Amino acid sequence: AYNEDDLMLYWKHGNKSLSTDEHISLSQFFIEEFSASSGLAFYSSTGWYNRLFINFALRRHIFFFVLQSYFPAMLMVMLSWVSFWIDRRAVPARVSLGITTVLTMSTIMTGVSASMPQVSYIKAVDVYLWISFLFVFLSVIEYAAVNYLTTIEERKQLKKRGKASGMYSMDAVQAMAFDGCFHDTDVDMDLTPFPDPCEENETRTSQTNISNADTPRLRRKRSLKGNVGRIILQNNHVIDTYSRIIFPSVYIVFNFFYWGLYM
Questions:
Q1: Per residue in 41-98, pLDDT tens?
Q2: How far apart are CA 199 and CA 179, in angstroms?
Q3: What is the DSSP letter of 85?
Q4: Residue 52 Cα distances to 37, 55, 98, 247, angstroms
Q5: pTM here?
Q6: Is 73 buried (19+), middle (13-18) or exposed (0-12) by CB count in 10 A?
Q7: Backbone angles phi, psi at 33, to 5 degrees
Q8: 211: CB partners within 8 A, 6+ apart
Q9: Which stretch is the leader sequence (predicted)?
Q10: What's the rounded Cα separation, in Å, for the pair 263 and 220?
Q11: Burial environment of residue 229 by CB neighbours within 10 A (0 to 12, 13 to 18, 19 or more)
């Protein structure tokens, strides 16, 4: 009812006019500091009015968001790197892993957005989650590039083999139709010219004296048992090899700058 011509308000002792309990706490924030100030408010019909203000500086509890948002996001990004160690020909395994991590990151981002105020500016947690989502998304794109380049590479090798042998590859059924013999599909058929039937009979006769432990299939199984890791490394594409180093390195650098800048 009284404007500045009639009434002046001020803090008599400044910040000392405020007294709070030292043990006061909030569920989501720390009270860093508070200060007292005064100001004027204008109303067009009556004029200027004195106002008293108390300003609180708050700091959010980060540990709750670390458990609910940051730590799950880190695990999802690291889980997406597992696809770099899977054989590039295991399409269902790598695709399902990539899609699962992308959907999980989307769920985490939706849950965080629902629990935070709906504001128009970008928050620090939004920056972290979107960068993490980008890493997961790029891991899916990385396998798409690996699969495409692998297909092109196999087609080129197939054409080279066809030119060298004078014919293109054929499966076991087609080969059986030509020579009347059953062919194991696991055996690499390099499209060499078919052997002479007489030579084939002599070869079969000589192989009857060899024990079953020395058959090609058993020897192949024995070699696979001890060399699984080596075979996986040989079947990896060069992009996978670089991704195992680049993705973790860039993500560690991002976390270092993020926690140093915002926290």
A1: 888 778 888 888 888 888 888 888 888 899 999 999 999 999 999 888 888 999 999 9
A2: 13
A3: G
A4: 6, 10, 56, 53
A5: 0.62
A6: buried
A7: -165, 170
A8: none
A9: none
A10: 56
A11: exposed
The token duo for 70 is 């940051």
In this structure, are residues 112 and 125 in contact, taking their beta carbons and an 8 Å threshold? yes
CA distance readout (Å), 175 to 80, 192, 203, 216, 246: 41, 12, 18, 19, 45
| Cα(128)–Cα(71) distance, integer angstroms | 11
Residue 172: count of CB within 10 angstroms of its CB: 15
Backbone angles phi, psi at 51, to 5 degrees: -135, 150
- CA distances to 15, 61, 63 from 29, in Å: 21, 5, 11
Domain ranges of the chain: 14-60, 64-156+241-262
From CA 57, how far away is CA 65, in angstroms rounded?
Answer: 20
Q: Write out the two tokens for 162.
A: 């066809």
103-148 confidence digits (pLDDT tens) = 999 999 999 888 888 888 898 899 999 999 999 999 999 999 998 8
Tell me which fold the domain 64-156+241-262 belongs to.
Answer: Methane Monooxygenase Hydroxylase; Chain G, domain 1 (1.20.58)
H/E stretch holding 30 reads strand 29-43
The identity of residue 157, as a single letter, is Q
11 C-beta neighbours (distance < 10 Å), count:
16
